[in-house]
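Hi V.,

You were right to ask for the full record rather than a summary. Here it is.
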Amino acid sequence: MIITRKIEIRIHEEDKEMKKNFMHTIFEWRDAIRKAANLIVSHKFIQENVRDFMYLQDDVIERLLIEDPSRKTVNSKTGKETIKYNISDTLKKEKGMSEQNTTYRLIAGLLKGKVHADMYSCLNQAIAKTCSKEIMSDVYKGESTLRNYKNNIPMPFSASALNNLHKVEEMYIVQQDGKEKKVNRYHFTLFGIPFVCWLGRDRSNNEAIIQRCISGEYKIKSSSIAFEKVVNRETGKKKQKLFLYLCVDMHKQEIKLNEKKMMFCYLGLTHPIEYNYEVQAKNIYDSGVKWSHIGDAEEFLYRRTQIQAAMHRCQIACKYNKGGNGRNRKLQALDRYAELEKNYVHTKLHTYSRMLVNEAIKYRCATIVLVNQESRELQAKEDNQKGEPFVLRNWSYYGLKTMIEYKAKMAGIKMVEVGKEISNEELNTE
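Predicted structure:
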């Protein structure tokens, strides 16, 4: 299973002039990668819709409109026949002109000499994969628009580009009391630029992950670096920092599970998670079923609503703040509260999802069944339309569902989401 760890990194160079040049190089990479990514998206969309370009020359249009009976399909809803369009009909019939290779050759000519070939090769693969999923589904259905990449775009690279990852013991001066403290720093080189990982308090246990990568227990996969603006809690100012998104292939935990045991749960309105590992599938809707719960509304919502109330008071008071440097200076305190709420929700969702997966491991359940979640989300939306947006606004259904799924996958537990009528086909228990 591949997971991604977000780690702050800094350029490890004492010479200020050389450090400045390294940072300038990274900014040039970012600008070039952003331009190339938007170019790839545009060309992918054009390749899919080139038949609609009625202003092209007649011979091009005729070639695109060739009716090939072998590509005829029948729409199941309307019953009309349509001819599937192949992008390969419009591409040159020569070596190196496949659908994915066209955009690679395009950006290779644009970025050659500016960005390492490994980086723009990984970029083309990542963007092409994303476009193939989104353009044919979400964009055509009107659920989203074409992606637009900005300055926070990740700059991808392959695992072989990250070299010389090693640990160095350094002396660190603690600012509060001025004493020296011995800490472990992890250094690596990327395309000739030396970096050091800045782990801080390391509440995410990133140091253990890096150590296992060095020992060979975990394998590093294609990763990326990116700039991100972070709010300083003390000053309230936003500072641009550089992060490494380290992708690691982790082994699944070897846990003995009972394939016949299932844990049924749902994300409720009064408790974040309610679960039962003893009930049968046919009896889960009985009124006599007792559900255990993880967390409650008071615990989760009290702190969040307190943060929101403080944010509201801060909004009212912002007009009295001292100006002079525009909007950012006036809204420093407001940005601090927004970041605080975001971090609180993220932490709670991780806590609840971990508690549920631990319960499933404890009782050796091989499957976690999320029951009838769609109707509960619809109920929350109906409350929102009636003027009661409290639950919908404060209950993070999708985030919690995603975290349960990936934590369960790490433990080798299958997660299934089913509707009101539960069948053996849905649970895959045959």
